[in-house]
Predict the structure of N-acetyl-gamma-glutamyl-phosphate reductase.
Amino acid sequence: MTYTVAILGASGYTGAECVRLIATHPNLRIGALCADRKAGQQMSKVFPHLRHLDLPALQRIEDTDFSGIDLVFAALPHGPSQEIVKALPRDLKVIDLSAGFRLRDSAAFEQWYGQPHAAPELQAEAVYGLTEFYREDIKSARLVAGTGCNAATGQFALRPLIAAGVIDIDDIIVDLKAGASGAGRALKEHLLFAEMFENIKGYSLGSVHRHQAEFDQEFSKLAGRPVEIQFTPHLVPSSRGILITCYLKGDAEQVLRTYHEAYANEPFVQVLPMGEAPMMKDVRGSNFVHIGVVGDRKPGRVTVIAALDNLTKGSSGQALQNANLMLGLEETTGLMLAPIYP
Amino acid sequence: MTYTVAILGASGYTGAECVRLIATHPNLRIGALCADRKAGQQMSKVFPHLRHLDLPALQRIEDTDFSGIDLVFAALPHGPSQEIVKALPRDLKVIDLSAGFRLRDSAAFEQWYGQPHAAPELQAEAVYGLTEFYREDIKSARLVAGTGCNAATGQFALRPLIAAGVIDIDDIIVDLKAGASGAGRALKEHLLFAEMFENIKGYSLGSVHRHQAEFDQEFSKLAGRPVEIQFTPHLVPSSRGILITCYLKGDAEQVLRTYHEAYANEPFVQVLPMGEAPMMKDVRGSNFVHIGVVGDRKPGRVTVIAALDNLTKGSSGQALQNANLMLGLEETTGLMLAPIYP
Amino acid sequence: MTYTVAILGASGYTGAECVRLIATHPNLRIGALCADRKAGQQMSKVFPHLRHLDLPALQRIEDTDFSGIDLVFAALPHGPSQEIVKALPRDLKVIDLSAGFRLRDSAAFEQWYGQPHAAPELQAEAVYGLTEFYREDIKSARLVAGTGCNAATGQFALRPLIAAGVIDIDDIIVDLKAGASGAGRALKEHLLFAEMFENIKGYSLGSVHRHQAEFDQEFSKLAGRPVEIQFTPHLVPSSRGILITCYLKGDAEQVLRTYHEAYANEPFVQVLPMGEAPMMKDVRGSNFVHIGVVGDRKPGRVTVIAALDNLTKGSSGQALQNANLMLGLEETTGLMLAPIYP
Amino acid sequence: MTYTVAILGASGYTGAECVRLIATHPNLRIGALCADRKAGQQMSKVFPHLRHLDLPALQRIEDTDFSGIDLVFAALPHGPSQEIVKALPRDLKVIDLSAGFRLRDSAAFEQWYGQPHAAPELQAEAVYGLTEFYREDIKSARLVAGTGCNAATGQFALRPLIAAGVIDIDDIIVDLKAGASGAGRALKEHLLFAEMFENIKGYSLGSVHRHQAEFDQEFSKLAGRPVEIQFTPHLVPSSRGILITCYLKGDAEQVLRTYHEAYANEPFVQVLPMGEAPMMKDVRGSNFVHIGVVGDRKPGRVTVIAALDNLTKGSSGQALQNANLMLGLEETTGLMLAPIYP
């Protein structure tokens, strides 16, 4: 069975990552690639690494015929995305990779993103796309909101622990290190090579990064009361990858056991043996998450380290995993690519 | 149909790359992983990025039962490799990724590698493994000698031009830039991160790099008389990738036309439009070669740029491509992975 | 006035950094360069970037005449260093950059470093070399123990706050990111370029890094009772630089005010305006420390970020600053080099 | 004796490098820093690594009083620079770091840069700023045109050989590798971290890079007849540094001897022993040039490798060297900083 998909925002990194993954997916074919500013160009011009593929030329969304399309990946900025998804035919399955539909509460969206929600009525039907925790809802969803890549990493580490009540939820610290591609292909001075190279830089300091809104929403829902974690992202000189170091109050053995229970049947989540911790590069280019637990010299303190690839498991791989579910395919189809190392 | 393979030297980069590629190959399974110094360890300890795979533990070659093995990938240093391949059961198909069997003339091996050939009788049957040019021989070979990764890159750029007689073969210059993994996982001071980072370093200057021996052998055979190119490799701060810039005397249009003819039906070789040139990262993690041609301001001079991934098309991907041929499988099976970018 | 110095361990990174800084120091000349394994070689062979300097050849320590030497920089591993410093003429001023003399308690040394202290009698006279806090003792010291580079960074951030009692000393978390050169020029697999590139890796997890011993010693002394911080170092793909993110319980305004008071007259410590944070590269190649304070969304939580260059302010620059004091020179002499950016 | 300088374009990399070098120059003080778009900002905001310096705030050029200024460094784009330098008081000494005044022939400027020369009358008095070869003219010049950074590197390698007639001037090939900062702080997609990282990319292929115009001008003048070299620059993942590999026809011994004669008394040019070659990082952050010569296996062929730091010797260090000469100071003043390694 073959399904036809369209990718909106194909000239960005998450769009290109969708194409890369679909290239070896046995049941999907690309029917349309959209990118407004680069409409008319061949994909081999915009992303020469995809030169070997027989791809449609880039086109404007408004010039696109969606009648033969089964599912759309919308890899657009969150502002336009709400408008554009709203304008798509109502029978299309949609996976939105932006922040446009991640927050259930439209007021929260306005507060964190500084603009009113452009499609609050659609928001109501959107399912939060963290596959391992919303699997059943995603299967029957029409609109799935891909998670923030940082938000995904933090949730893989913290959701089972908060749900099981094995850590102090008033003292959670997440120190995150992320590569450049998470910020997209936008032209910003701090993303220039000469600025990032041989550098590390904290940003959105003081727990004000927008992905914090997802933590607030999801962790508070899990705990049944407000949870506010401390969260500091750092930009590191890597093109891909996220690694988080979580400082928690709890018992290391109990924490590890909780992960083993939560992830026993998850094909993409690897829980490491006690005392081992993943490296950022262990998952590069793949849909895997690695999680490790280490007890601290100080009793009652535990460190959790987790790693994923922001473009794969953190966005486009997650999107494809959700697409598999929405289309009735085996969840892991096309996603078992091994990480590339070194 | 499933074939069982063994990988000798599984704790090195080319060995691990074989595992990565086989992980999503539909017709191969790994029956044994050998690594003498790390025998007894799990692969997940030596290469944690392969943690999700169900792999046999590392073992010594002498403890390995090859009776159920169809084909061996020998990813060992060239010295031991000649001895070890000689000792393998005679009915085993073998792909040797070292320099042990690349040079048809055992005297040339001794001259370039500073030691006598340990298996000259086997050398006689070894087929040089540059798939696109030795395809038919490889199909029926028992022992295939994988090429040097630098040597492969140079040959993709130069073989068609020398064969067609469209360039001056007495004035060929190849300036090569290669990432660190080509040197393997050996502990050498110049391969330390702090040494290579923010650095570029020429080595084996004066056209004395060992892969030069492959150029001598292959180009002289093609031309029917001795050909000696000038070849300078440089170590660049990348983990993977080779990019060569070739300075040639010839006509750009004729050169491009020659490539189009030579590579018209090659699934892994992409010839770019006139005036465009590949970047090193365009092929990362994939089995593709990209080649571009640019005419120089100076009449009669042409620049050719070619790129491949040293660990994939330059060694382990090439090996798998040959394995497919030797086992009667479709040549591209398991090798159509798209490059990972950025 | 010119003083003559010798550098022991001149073939390592901290030794070479001493040479770099002395090269433009107006009052110091290099009388001897020692490096046992490379004795007999020219420095231009071992470190070609120093080629323009007229330097003595490398020699064995036992072949060195110390009679004309005023001060020795010992940039050796901690084990040999204790023995070698003990054997030096008693009238020589010595700055030891190893961990050999950092811990006042020889039992603590044995516990953390796994070997008995080889010169406990010398330990008694050693002054801990964190200049800004031991300035007067250093002026009259004969033997100064350079601090750990990680330990220095943490202390610049935490000492004033612990001393002033403005943070909860039972809940201090330091997440550290450090470049490769802190591990020296030793041949270790995890320090290879291909391993570190595009990677981040936590190590000595669970607050068991050896520099923790310096934190224990210094912070407990300051607080008048045992203080145990949580400390996780990470190896990041940079050749130089340390950046720490400290998660503290306290008031941001009070924390910033405390820094302003503590560092008002310190030429090398730059306190940033409220809400700004340093980047790792802001201090590269220089003797400066940058410290920034950001209040968290969560009341009573504050994040402190500090950065220094491990080879300069973290070791060889600190050593030169101490040498200036020990020799009666102006403390900043030769050390006002601006950071190199980008 | 202290001279006061102004820096126009202080918010760019070459402007900031001027500030870095002047910071420890004993005879220069900074009277004004100009940057139109960032006028009103503190330098510590634009370049936090310069935070420790007491610098004037950035201001507009038209708001600047040049009455107390002795010399101006104009680190602006070439278009505006011609206009702005023309408008400066006639008695000001000026060092222009742009391409605005490098080409003696205004028609050549128009041809290579695609716009008419805005100050052809000033062009007549401009002296080409390659210090080692125009030293006497620079001493008495009012307006000095800093060279292109790539052009400087190529000339250090080739000028002595062309002048001495020891190489075939019709067959000169220069393969250049350059870090990102040579392209400045401009926002361009190919300069983003995620694009450049783990990548190598040739550009201005076919010998059409604008610095080629300087090669044409200078080499043809030296040879007394037109000389056209082949020149291919590559962008490499480094923030600083240029390394060139030159493929020449000549005798290695004679080439090396020629360098020794040409550079015997040059404080900043280091000629390496026969067979050794510099690495890019050997000169980072310094005003030194390293040159090495290797004979090729092929008789009559020789490879020359040269390295310099594009921001220092390739632009701002060169500018300061020229400023020293123009102000009657010792040429090396403030410029003997040792390279930073690793």
